[in-house]
Structures
1.
Amino acid sequence: EVQLVESGGGLVQPGGSLRLSCAASGFTFNNFAMSWVRQAPGKGLEWVSGIFGGGGSTYYADSMKGRFTISRDNSRNMVYLQMNSLRTEDTAVYYCAKFCCGAAAIRGLDYWGQGTLVTVSS
Amino acid sequence: QTVVTQEPSFSVSPGGTVTLTCGLSSGSVSTTYYPSWYQQTPGQAPRTLIYNTNTRSSGVPDRFSGSILGNKAALTITGAQADDESDYYCVLYMGSGISMFGGGTKLTVL
């Protein structure tokens, strides 16, 4: 059974940093690209970032580029999201999700975690 | 900048059929956008229904189907049930590793 468990959310001041983690199990981790998706309170879903199975290629939504960094540790079946220069508008539930279709297929999510809440406030 | 468009809301009668669509503010959706569909109820994580236009995710009943209709991607729900009342989101692959969500459709079953 595929499981994705996020951790690392919490309250952070504007301008601060936070690192989210996602522990994956139930599939051959390095065979699949992974993603982060977020949802601000009362709003829709927003794609944040993606990373190839080997970790060599990463992609970001424009509003996150330069502030967020996605990475993975295939020896530990973990994916991370380092978030710097946080803004109040980054307040959201952040979901870890698995891409469906291969290590370099960075489209089509098939499994999701339960999410971790990040609150950016002074 | 191109925006992914969805109907803000839709309603369907129990047992009825509804088709939700996913388009582009500029241009047509085709299979090369690998459209996917997700269902979300309040307070819950999203659930994948469809990916790669028409591939049902594991455990999704065949009442849910995906297609391209005209210049849009479409999600059709047949035999609507009360627990289909949810928010539905589509995602399009925009190329260069970038995906984009639509604004979501709030489906009411009444």
2.
Amino acid sequence: DTEVTQTPKHLVMGMTNKKSLKCEQHMGHRAMYWYKQKAKKPPELMFVYSYEKLSINESVPSRFSPECPNSSLLNLHLHALQPEDSALYLCASSDGPGANVLTFGAGSRLTVL
Amino acid sequence: GQQVMQIPQYQHVQEGEDFTTYCNSSTTLSNIQWYKQRPGGHPVFLIQLVKSGEVKKQKRLTFQFGEAKKNSSLHITATQTTDVGTYFCADGTSGTYKYIFGTGTRLKVLA
């Protein structure tokens, strides 16, 4: 069982749709992450929030918009996506930077038509 | 920028055979973490190594950190079908939130 919960598990959207991915953790972790993972590839860092502030944006296109409403919640708002954005989107949390362990959610599998 | 490469990319073994994956970094690693991702699943933390030359064991899994802290290895003795998945190393650089994942090694175990 994962302590990081992601919804929805699967999402299919058109290129003109607006949707959101949600992530919740109740471990009291101070950092939350969004990773994108394509098939047979490692997770790629997109965004990091530390103490509810955006601390890393890995030059992600603006059609992906992260939001951290509080220390337990992380959203990823999606708008005008492209088919190549289809991937597994993984949320993770950690207690701090660097040597702290990442705990991943089960992921949201996104298909863009 | 930093690159973390893993070899081999794929490995098929007969159940009961041993398996090793190697993780090599272009820069010195602060620490190395290992994760396992089952097919259709998400990465799950296995272990973290911090000290130069460190060796840690978890049942049939043995993890090593190189003396120069630029490489690491994961060795599985007598593989089982439950070992199937992709094994990633990750550099958890101290003081940053940038965890750089290695390219991964996908293990298939044939019964």
3.
Amino acid sequence: GDSVTQMEGPVTLSEEAFLTINCTYTATGYPSLFWYVQYPGEGLQLLLKATKADDKGSNKGFEATYRKETTSFHLEKGSVQVSDSAVYFCALSEVDSGGGADGLTFGKGTHLIIQP
Amino acid sequence: DTEVTQTPKHLVMGMTNKKSLKCEQHMGHRAMYWYKQKAKKPPELMFVYSYEKLSINESVPSRFSPECPNSSLLNLHLHALQPEDSALYLCASSQDRGSFYEQYFGPGTRLTVT
């Protein structure tokens, strides 16, 4: 079945540091890939997405590129802020045999802590 | 507007109670989802509705009963729950069930079963 693997952390960085959160996936077909962010006590917010190979998703200074050859979708940000502290989930969605998607398959989540 | 609303925000119920969680979206989305999230874990899919019909039931116990009265509303009826059912219940919606459609999540209902 489909699966997503990401570093769990916690990942602790200083403000203005460069961020990379690795994400790799296993899928039988051609999935769409997503990054979601969850702040304490809240639901999930879509951060960015990519639906085909070499697509780059970007939002709020975060970027991730869909790499089919390495089955990866690593999240990067050039200069993190304290307000970026949250849990980040990499996820995929794939079409099932009926032509619809089965919902999202999530990685375990990476807890990011940014210190001033 | 990309808002999904959920009520109540918090719910405490005993094991013999019957309660319902409500989810609403006004984005014209035709697919709606229920997820369960335990502390420090990723969300796990419970149910998928597509065009108001149940498409996927991920082997969820019958004490959880979903209902989709119309295209904007999704309910989750709870009965005879166990303490291990305590979790954050998240509702989401997407334009359709295609894999490239992003899902928009509500803030969740934090359920405690005593």
4.
Amino acid sequence: KNQVEQSPQSLIILEGKNCTLQCNYTVSPFSNLRWYKQDTGRGPVSLTIMTFSENTKSNGRYTATLDADTKQSSLHITASQLSDSASYICVVSLRLTGGGNKLTFGTGTQLKVEL
Amino acid sequence: GAVVSQHPSWVICKSGTSVKIECRSLDFQATTMFWYRQFPKQSLMLMATSNEGSKATYEQGVEKDKFLINHASLTLSTLTVTSAHPEDSSFYICSASPITGGRGELFFGEGSRLTVL
């Protein structure tokens, strides 16, 4: 069964600190992995998208890593800010026979940054 | 970046009425759009894939007669919740990928919160 599991489920950190969110998946055949940030009551916004050949990708203070062998990804947030408080969703794209992709969503990590 | 707009952003309706939610790609064309629903503190759940000019593809367990999807053009898909009931109250989100350009990037709308009284 194709699954995407994220940990921790929730996390509270102090402003300025770093944190790392984890994503493990069993999706196969793998096409790409995406990290999204979703503010409460808003739609998800893309942070990074990585194919199997990409090990790391950065977007400002966000750095995503991918190990396609172990099927693990992480999202590292550096020097957190209050505005980083949101749900972070890992989405893995399954390559379909006959073309196209199917997305499998993780349940998300709820991050709260406090003063 | 590419923009996907949803309207309305929130709606309150009486039980038994129908509600239409629009999803527009403002600066790109999309042959395929996706509709999701999201309950509090849960992740997005794909409801259906909206295909321009043809019937939508529904996920298992989603009633096609309950959630009517129309993809009339390359920039507009609509979701109509028919005979809405309180259990249909949820956050509905659409997404779309540009036909050309990008890297299969998927852009999400801002979501529409439906409350059925």
